[in-house]
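In response to reviewer comment 3 from the previous cycle, which asked for concrete evidence that the modeling workflow produces usable outputs, we include below a single protein chain processed end to end. The sequence was submitted unchanged, and the resulting structure tokens are shown without manual editing.
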Amino acid sequence: MIERQKRQKALLSGEIPICLSTQACCRYLLNHGLMPDFVKIIELWPYQADEEWQELICSKNISHLKDRVYFPSAISGTWKYNGDTRSVVYSNRPSTVQHYAAQDGNIIIEAGMTLNHERFAIRKRFNEIPSGVLISDGVFYEYLAGKIDEIVFADAPFSIFEIQNVMEQIAAIDETNVFTVFAREALDFNRMYLERVYPGQDLVNTFWGYLLSTGRNPVYTNMRELLAALRVHLPREWRSTEIEAITQVLSELDLCTVEKKGSIMAIKLFSSTNSQVDIDHSLYYLEGLAEKKLFRIWKPN
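The workflow returned the following structure tokens.
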């Protein structure tokens, strides 16, 4: 929170010439008077606007860099490379990458690579071939040269950003066939994943209540002990990803800090108030609300 307040102060004073923000963060700054009037706001991706955001767009004269956002609209069953096209396959699972890598044809894989110079080399190779398949994980951005005949979403994307990042790399997107061949159950899995990494108000309050109930400060524990104790406190299937997300929210609100040494964590509390956590001041929580909302908007047929 302290670091965030420093950045907000720098923004208000005009010390920051260019600030890259998300819509959720920008909305928070505008609603709390933390965005100076002289700042020009440009929205890169014009997502579907609710009434509040539409009012902010009009009142703050927010302009758009792009006219529309691309969404694959239907789950289309199966796809198999025919050997003659230039195709991009999106995958976020190693098993899927291995499945498509085993197909016949000129298969080029960049998914999972961690070094940009390796990805640039892979893209250069793909750009130079008349036909072939590029297997991508959607985390790297560079325009693909030449005509792309097909985009195949072999796995369900975890975010709208990944969809947009893949689709925007194609110059003539309207001339590209788009396939979504993952099972509908994959969308349900990803929705559950988003719920775990972006926990809601009730779960944050439950965890905070548990920390206070221990009567200890700091609370020394490890993840296994913590998960077991929480299952007693509130019988449900708790996961480590939820704990990490909740402690990030609480840390952002200056309610606690988490220090780790090996498997041991020390959770130091800065408040003993057993009231509801004011979660609406957590940007991580607000980002999660926006991400889950956008995921719900995308409903392929």
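The mean pLDDT is 85. We consider this sufficient to address the reviewer's concern, and the full set will be provided in the supplementary archive.
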